[in-house]
Design the sequence.
């Protein structure tokens, strides 16, 4: 379920493509705007109507979504690549998490993020030990 207020106007074809690509990338407008170095309000306009973007902005946007710049001008958007086989337990859990309210998501993430950091640190320590052992040999 998309967050925020729905648009009162029909999107232009360009804006619809930008919106669809952002949705496929599972990013929020705030996340995209931050990565582009612009405000969320400016980016929201890109999803509402035709805007005059510089070549650099088009290239940056295309790189962010992992598509060629021509994807903004094609008649049809390609379906996102699907992973083979059934969805894993983590994917199913995080898809369910996305359906929760933002405050509920924050509560879950407050529990999960520290555990992920611990696991990442353990992995880094194991890699460092293995590196030291191979250097000593």
Sequence:
């Amino acid at each position: 379920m998309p967050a925020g207020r729905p648009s009162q106007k029909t999107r232009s074809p360009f804006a619809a493509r930008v919106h669809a690509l952002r949705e496929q990338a599972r990013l929020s407008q705030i996340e995209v705007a931050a990565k582009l170095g612009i405000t969320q309000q400016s980016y929201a306009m890109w999803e509402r109507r035709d805007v005059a973007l510089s070549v650099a902005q088009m290239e940056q946007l295309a790189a962010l979504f992992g598509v060629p710049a021509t994807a903004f001008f094609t008649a049809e958007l390609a379906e996102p690549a699907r992973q083979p086989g059934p969805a894993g337990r983590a994917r199913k859990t995080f898809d369910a998490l996305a359906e929760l309210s933002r405050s509920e998501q924050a509560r879950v993430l407050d529990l999960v993020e520290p555990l992920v950091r611990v696991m990442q640190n353990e992995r880094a320590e194991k890699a460092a030990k293995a590196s030291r052992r191979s250097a000593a040999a």
About this structure: The radius of gyration is 20 Å. DSSP finds six helices and no strands in the chain. The chain has two domains: 13-72, 89-136. The first helix runs from residue 13 to 24.
